[in-house]
Design goal:
Length: 299
């Protein structure tokens, strides 16, 4: 059958010429569906369940922003990566789309190499996410990605950041006085705490390219591709506050609390830099957060 074994892409644009160009660029490697309006796109997504969506922002009726909002609000579609399509001079549209959960953008007029590279990157991430359980890339206690998955994703996002000259940020997080917590409440309660905070971390990784992982023990990390320091700090403070507000019930009826320290590093990598530089810097900042009082974010 034609397209069997290929990943599928839905291209949404009200201009037939744009649909034809993108279909020609992508159809050799992917099964390509098209839609000419936001309404048609939402209907097709229910039926075809694409692996990736290329979404024009400016359309009559339901525009691309509204389509994106509906996709991210629905549990069954929020994990589908969306690349927005914008004009060359529409920086505000790009920024708004990325803040709403789009993973990337391409501009008109289309350049074949750029379209192919960006689509290939996000299809690769989709494939990796689907392989996680089969390859044992999930931490069995917290049910979020483990260190091995983290290393593989960081390598992918690092290469993309170098290629496209994009910022990449990393949050390294460690529960404060976790040994004391375990000694006081017992290891089973410590496991409950780890599961609860992992849920907070996973929720903070909103875009399909973001990744929250358990790195070992009570140490966690979040990769934030295409995110500068200001955006990463905002997410880090949100995570810190949510952990501080967390209440974890114990079997005896008591309620326990915890805090977390976070180190945040951000850079625009080049061909000479290595991802270990980003990890080391975040680790140093995490140590600084611990040394200066805990329950804080350092950058």
């Amino acid at each position: 059958m034609e397209g069997k074994g290929k990943n599928s892409i839905l291209v949404v644009d009200d201009e037939t010429s744009n649909l034809m160009v993108l279909h020609k660029i992508l159809s050799a490697d992917y099964t390509v569906f098209t839609a000419k309006s936001g309404e048609e796109a939402l209907s097709r997504i229910e039926v075809d369940a694409p692996d990736l969506i290329l979404l024009d922002i400016v359309m009559p009726g339901i525009d691309g922003f509204e389509v994106l909002r509906r996709l991210k609000d629905a549990p069954e579609t929020k994990s589908i990566p969306v690349i927005i399509i914008t004009g060359l001079d529409n920086d505000d549209d790009e920024e708004k789309g990325l803040l709403m959960g789009a993973v990337d953008y391409i501009t008109k007029p289309f350049k074949n190499a750029i379209v192919c590279a960006r689509v290939r990157t996000h299809i690769q991430i989709v494939r990796q996410l689907r392989m996680i359980e089969r390859l044992g890339l999930v931490d069995p206690l917290t049910d979020i990605p483990n260190r091995r998955c983290f290393n593989e994703r960081l390598a992918i996002e690092w290469r993309r950041s170098v290629r496209d000259n994009l910022s990449i940020s990393f949050m390294m997080m460690d529960l404060d006085k976790f040994k004391t917590y375990n000694d006081t409440y017992g290891h089973p309660q410590g496991d409950r705490l780890l599961k609860a905070v992992a849920g907070i971390f996973s929720a903070a990784a909103r875009r399909s390219g973001d990744l929250a992982a358990r790195l070992g023990g009570e140490e966690f990390g979040i990769i934030l591709p295409d995110t500068g320091l200001e955006g990463a700090l905002s997410i880090a403070e949100e995570v810190r506050a949510h952990v501080e507000a967390l209440r974890v019930p114990a079997p005896d009826g008591t309620v326990t609390t915890a805090t977390i320290s976070i180190g945040v590093a951000s850079l625009v990598p080049n061909k000479e830099s290595v991802s270990g530089d980003l990890i080391s810097r975040a680790d140093e900042l995490l140590y600084q957060a611990k040394e200066t009082g805990r329950n804080r974010v350092c950058s």
